[in-house]
Amino acid sequence: MSGRTAPRRVSHSQRRGPTSGRERRQEQWRGRRDEAGMKNVEERLGHRDQESVPRGTCQSMCPIWELQEREAQNRLHRFEMLAGTERDRRPRADSLRAVKEYTRPAAGKDSTRPSDLRPPAVLLKTVCYLVDEIVVSPSLQPWTDVYDFVFDRLRSVKQDMIIQRVSGPDCEVILERIVRFLIYSSVRLCGEPLRLYDPRINDTHLQECLSWLLNCYAAGSGPHPNQEDFQALGLLYNLGSPCAMQHTIKLPKRLRTSPSVSLALSINQAFLERNPVRLIRLARKLNFLQSCALHQHLGVCRKDLLLIYSHGHSSRNCHFPLDRLAGLLSLDGSLTVQLCQAHGVEVNHKNQVVFSKTSFMEPEPRKLHCVLYHQIISEKQRNLSVGDIIHGYA
Fold it and tell me: Predicted confidence band at 273 (pLDDT cuts at 50, 70, 90)?
């Protein structure tokens, strides 16, 4: 007898799988703000009057003492080094390119000194620099290094915002760019090795920033010109989450019935009804960033579609046209064949799909590379620059 384990069969009554990921997203949606260490800073500040909250006075992207310290300790990132000194034993810092790095709060360390904190205008300038000079630069490669650098510096930006209790439009305009960057990165780095990109860490920070941003919208009197877009992004990213759904339903009618939010609600309804055909059809109406927010759910939807059709068309005499199935999945023919084969669905030499409820199976771990199935997303990025996407111009 062979020692190989037979592939696990999937019945139509089985659900999508473990809900731990969804439960984790629901917990994050409930309002987890920022890193655990920063909560201690907030608690200390909470005992003070609003007038005693520190106000930053640092007018550069990186405090001068930190710049000098990191230069002396050889801790400069290569994106911060003065041109021509990169190969020196001790590279010099470029004060116009250096950005304050994130540091965890430590006992006995005062992280509230005004001279170390950047005011909101400088924080926005820092975020714009990171997007315009680092993220979009074609000469800075690989992009995983770009992501690591920008991700760390954005954490430092959030840290300064929390300590100073930045709120209102100043807070919103920064958080909006951070959320767009993290959503875009989740697609661009999809499939990268875990040592280079951890999607769970990206997801955690994205959920925190998104929750913070939506709270800003709820607390402020407005106007909030981008609120409709981010309410829709929040629901698409947390598709199927009861908390996200409840939050959206409670929005004012003006927002709830807006085109973006209405489309997101329709897609969420299709997801809850397990109607993958309708969901994928509606997903074609999304713009690029909205498609990026939805992309983590498309694999589940496509698997559900094949599972449902494997039961509904389970007959040796029933042959389903491959090109029609490809249209339903929003994939080209070759990728549709790969997806079918990975799930045990037969495609014959006449390009006909032969569904069978007994042959459908879960694909082997890591056999399916999500990045190969980004066609529905990549088609929408044509003529869109990364900078325009993150700044919200697209």
Answer: very high
User: Among all chains, which residue has been given the structure tokens 């056999």?
Assistant: 367
Are 279 and 380 a contacting pair, CB within 8 Å? no
Rounded to an integer, what distance in angstroms lies between the CA atom of residue 181 and that of residue 301? Answer: 25
Closest CA to 236 of 226, 247, 225: 247
CA-closest candidate to residue 350, choices 364, 363, 337, 365: 337
CB neighbour list of residue 101: distance below 8 Å, 6 or more residues apart: 62, 66, 70, 77, 152, 153, 156
Cβ neighbour number for residue 241 with a 10 Å cutoff: 20
Neighbours of 34 (CB within 10 A): 18
pLDDT digits (tens, 9 = 90+) for 114-169: 999 999 999 999 999 999 999 999 999 999 999 999 999 999 999 999 999 999 99
Question: Token pair of 390, please?
Answer: 């993150």
Q: Give the neighbor-by-neighbor strand order of the sheet with 346-347.
A: 319-321, 352-354, 346-347
**208-212 contacts at long range (C-beta below 8 A, 24 or more positions apart):** 208/28, 208/32, 208/33, 208/34, 209/158, 209/175, 209/178, 209/179, 209/182, 210/179, 210/234, 210/237, 211/28, 211/29, 211/30, 211/31, 211/32, 211/33, 212/33, 212/34, 212/171, 212/175
Place of tokens 């907030």: 42
Residue 383's pLDDT band, with cuts at 50, 70 and 90, is confident
Confidence grade of residue 16 (pLDDT, cut at 50, 70, 90): very low
State the helix-helix crossing angle for 322-329 and 333-342, rounded to 10 degrees.
90
Calculate the average pLDDT of the chain.
Answer: 87
Q: How confident is the model at residue 368 (pLDDT cuts 50, 70, 90)?
A: confident
Lowest pLDDT segment from 107-111, 152-156, 283-287, 312-316: 107-111
